[in-house]
């Protein structure tokens, strides 16, 4: 990929920098979590890379030992732990045959091949959170008096005991290759009253001659004040590995850029993180991004003090795996720790006559060739904005060269807002799902938009439970649906002209919680539209906020959109509008208010269809939508639909309610994954009708559910499938009964009911009836092929 010329270093220059190994006293620190059987063999792939039974090169120079959950179920980072939990940590770490003993012996084994260890490996031991509710910590001095962690004196006594006990046990063990660097503050954030606790710990650790380390989560409260708390070294987690789109999140690779900029300018290091790299191709891709972006030619954090979250046993499993793709994770990790630059593992693109960063102030088109024919799931476009106050706005069309050598539209995206947490490093993602040998990108910026194209990434990860089919993202309805919306709609709330004087408490507003919302209007006939207005509520005390992003779309053609992107060509008649800042319409005595977002056209646009897309950050409450044409609101003249439906209350039989998307989102649950499931345990049948939008040739309809009996989830007894051209007259009925395999109550796995249709199968509507069996029925997808 032609990105070596990117100006990463200049973008990240500042007076401060990542902590150097000399400053920190270590370079590459592996986090080692509790394992009752951590043997010498387990630790060998951490201390060195082995080839043919011999150590080939040294690896990690430091090790942080920590326990996340004690045997009593106490989380040491946040829960109320007592002496018995702290003792358990120490007992495990210093036990013969595991942890520190195994590490020391593994280093001895490696030294037989590599010679004398150049420097002893540094050890950090975690300090559990000192919860102020603990007034009966236990007796640490043997005087029969228990310690009170709500008092400074009690905390001081406990910390002095713990530091001294750890030092005593470490010295008594006589490790040949280990040195006690110091301690780690386990809590990854700072809450009310924590500053004084941390400063006390820092003072006592320093008095004993050791150092204190902290690894906060990304943008944890007061992360940038780490030095004032008394920490010697701080390293921030990007958390990219756990909130990417494959984890049902929305974070992209620009998180690594934003995290690098924040850490570097505040003197912190960067934590490397592995997700489920043993089984997930997408998680491996995310980890490779960490490795590639750490190089000097990119963000440079490879040279700074670094911590590594490697799960409980990812290193052992990757090092010994029979799968070459999994072993490759370990090999590249070893390269990185050894100081080698790890090349970007995404498919390489040779861009024709395009030099990065590329100015995007004017329309521009670039073309690049892939090294080989590649299945492109998505094209990720990374745009560095000129400053943090102005978003680059515009549309991007991606075209691909198909196997026959023809350029065909693959997908498009409209970028109208910005992620404030990413600073100048923004991203737009174009769906593709096509094989390509070349890529063409066409940028159409909005008037006045400024930005620079920094990088283009090709997502070619193997599909993981996501597939496109005829019903993909199509609207559907459910009879006997469980779960009433908390703030529902009677079909007129958004066009009745009424703004609730008491806000959402009147239940005249429509509400969604953490959803991407599409409100789509058919105005009945074309109108000359000059603006769209959305009236929302704001009440921070009730977690009701403005949408974190919003976009209005106008068209003379029907819009089937639930996001600001789509497959194929950007619709020719589509006009997109960015919103104004909220304009107050009503201020209530309690300080909450109603404000309207105004999406204004540069000049009136002929449009019959209008869609507003909004991202709910916590609760989004909408009380009115207006479409202004010729000076009046024409929205009441038409009809509207909501995708998804208003958020339901997840309780009782409605614990797993449908949201109008789950059954056609292309994701098939392989087990009990609540967010992907529409479940019910009352009433035998559920009927789902899918509208494909136009007549399609239908061959197979597959209903995906769960079976096995674990969690009282059993297979449905049977399903029926019917099709229709008009939604009134149904034909082609097909019944499929469940597999007779015994469900023993010990598993929860995916099962499918596939109905193969015959005869005349051209239809617009598909109706599926599902008969619940025993316990819970859980549906995850209706696939129409």
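-> sequence recovered:
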């Amino acid at each position: 990929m032609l990105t070596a010329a990117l100006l990463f270093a200049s973008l990240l220059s500042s007076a401060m920098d990542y902590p150097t190994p000399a400053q920190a006293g270590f370079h590459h620190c592996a986090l080692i979590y509790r394992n009752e059987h951590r043997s010498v063999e387990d630790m060998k792939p951490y201390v060195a890379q082995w080839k043919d039974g011999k150590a080939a090169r040294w690896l990690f120079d430091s090790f942080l030992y920590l326990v996340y959950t004690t045997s009593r179920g106490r989380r040491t980072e946040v829960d109320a732990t007592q002496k018995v939990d702290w003792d358990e940590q120490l007992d495990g770490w210093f036990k013969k045959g595991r942890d520190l003993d195994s590490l020391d012996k593994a280093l001895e084994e490696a030294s037989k091949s590599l010679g004398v260890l150049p420097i002893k490996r540094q050890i950090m031991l975690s300090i559990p959170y000192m919860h102020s509710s603990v007034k009966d910590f236990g007796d640490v001095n043997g005087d029969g008096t228990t310690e009170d962690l709500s008092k400074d004196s009690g905390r001081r006594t406990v910390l002095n005991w713990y530091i001294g006990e750890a030092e005593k046990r470490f010295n008594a063990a006589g490790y040949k290759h280990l040195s006690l660097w110091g301690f780690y503050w386990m809590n990854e954030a700072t809450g009310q009253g924590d500053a004084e606790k941390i400063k006390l710990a820092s003072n006592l650790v320093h008095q004993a001659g050791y150092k204190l380390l902290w690894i906060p989560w990304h943008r944890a409260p007061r992360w940038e004040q780490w030095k004032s708390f008394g920490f010697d070294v701080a390293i921030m987690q990007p958390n990219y590995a756990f909130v990417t789109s494959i984890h049902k999140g929305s974070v992209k690779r620009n998180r690594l850029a934003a995290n690098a900029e924040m850490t570097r300018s505040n003197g912190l290091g960067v934590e490397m993180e592995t997700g489920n790299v043993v089984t997930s191709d997408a998680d491996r891709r995310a980890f490779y991004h960490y490795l590639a972006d750490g190089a000097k030619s990119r963000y440079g954090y490879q040279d700074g003090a670094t911590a590594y979250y490697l799960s409980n046993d990812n290193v052992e499993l990757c090092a010994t795996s029979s799968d070459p793709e999994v072993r490759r994770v370990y090999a590249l990790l070893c390269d990185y720790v050894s100081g080698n630059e790890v090349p970007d593992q995404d498919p390489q693109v040779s861009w024709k006559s395009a030099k990065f960063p590329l100015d995007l102030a004017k329309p521009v088109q670039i073309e690049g060739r892939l090294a080989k024919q590649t299945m492109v799931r998505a094209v990720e476009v990374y745009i560095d904005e000129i400053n943090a106050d102005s978003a680059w706005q515009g549309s991007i069309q991606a075209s691909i060269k198909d196997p026959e050598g023809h350029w065909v539209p693959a997908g498009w995206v409209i970028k109208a807002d910005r992620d404030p947490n990413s600073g100048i490093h923004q991203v737009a993602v174009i769906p593709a799902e096509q094989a390509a040998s070349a890529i063409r990108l066409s940028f159409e910026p909005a008037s006045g938009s400024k930005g620079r194209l920094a990088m283009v990434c090709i997502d070619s990860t193997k599909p993981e439970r996501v597939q496109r089919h005829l019903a993909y993202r199509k609207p559907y309805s459910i009879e006997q649906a469980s779960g009433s919306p908390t703030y529902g709609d009677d079909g007129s709330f958004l066009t009745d002209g009424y703004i609730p004087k008491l806000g959402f408490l009147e239940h005249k507003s429509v509400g969604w919680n953490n959803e991407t919302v599409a409100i789509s209007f058919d105005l009945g006939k074309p109108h000359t539209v000059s603006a769209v207005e959305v009236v929302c509520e704001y009440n921070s005390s009730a977690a009701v906020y403005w949408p974190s992003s919003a976009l209005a779309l106008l068209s003379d053609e029907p819009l089937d959109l639930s996001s600001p992107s789509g497959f194929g060509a950007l619709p020719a008649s589509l006009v997109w509008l960015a919103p104004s800042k909220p304009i107050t319409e009503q201020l209530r005595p309690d300080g909450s208010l109603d404000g309207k977002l105004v999406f204004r056209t540069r000049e009136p646009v002929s449009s019959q269809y209008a869609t507003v897309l909004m991202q709910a950050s916590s609760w989004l409450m909408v009380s009115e939508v207006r479409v202004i044409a010729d000076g009046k609101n024409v929205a009441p003249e038409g009809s509207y639909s909501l995708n998804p439906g208003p958020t339901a209350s997840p309780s009782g039989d409605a614990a797993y309610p449908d949201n109008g998307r789950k059954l056609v989102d292309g994701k098939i649950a392989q087990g009990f994954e609540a967010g992907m499931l529409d479940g019910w345990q009352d009433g035998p049948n559920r009927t789902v009708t899918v509208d494909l939008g136009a007549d399609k040739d239908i061959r197979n309809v597959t209903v995906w559910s769960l079976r096995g009996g674990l969690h009282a989830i059993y297979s449905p007894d049977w399903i029926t499938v019917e099709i229709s051209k008009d939604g009134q007259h149904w034909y082609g009925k097909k019944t499929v009964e469940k597999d007779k395999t015994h469900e023993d109550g010990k598993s929860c796995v995916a099962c499918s009911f596939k109905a193969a249709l015959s005869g005349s199968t051209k239809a617009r509507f598909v109706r599926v009836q599902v008969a619940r069996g025993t316990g819970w029925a859980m549906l995850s997808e209706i696939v129409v092929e």
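The mean pLDDT is 90.
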